[in-house]
Amino acid sequence: MYTHTMVLYTGKGDGGKSGLFTGERLAKDESIFEALGTVDELNTFVGWCKVACGIDWLINERRTSDILLDVQNHLFTIQAELVGAEKGIPEESIKDMEFLIETIEGKLPKIVSFLIPGGNELSSRLDITRAVSRRAERRLISDGSVSKNTLTYANRLSSLLYALVRFVNHNGNVEEKPPEYI
Q1: Containing domain of residue 38, as a range?
Q2: E strands along the chain, which residues?
Q3: How many other β-carbons are positioned within 10 Å of the β-carbon of residue 90?
Q4: Is the pLDDT assigned to residue 8 strictly greater than 90?
């Protein structure tokens, strides 16, 4: 039987400090909290994309919504690592993601230019999520407390999201348009 109760607030952060998994309390404007907040924001955007997967295409026998759920679970692992838990991104997860990116890329026309975002609802959401992913990666780098595997995963994640943008547009018969540089 589950007996633990979660509270929505503790009041402990009212003085501008917050606690880590280790029990250490730091100012809320420390780089670790900026990284945590950005990864949390990224996770919500991934969820926003996941619920828009009306047509749930298969990639390597995995549904796009399941791929995004997997990403969300990895983002929770990254947050746990940030706060000092003995968690980390396994190398196998990086290799799986690379294989997924390569598979998607193999189904699409070659990229010859930057592309204007906004093909359809899902690809637009994925593009926003990709941009937030890049920011999360920068925050993880500036914090400096996560493993090499986590940084590699964060770097590949933006590539996966971009591949998904293109995959969704391609399968939705949305024409990719390069910028005109007016």
Answers
A1: 27-106+114-171
A2: 17-19, 25-27, 58-59, 62-63
A3: 13
A4: no
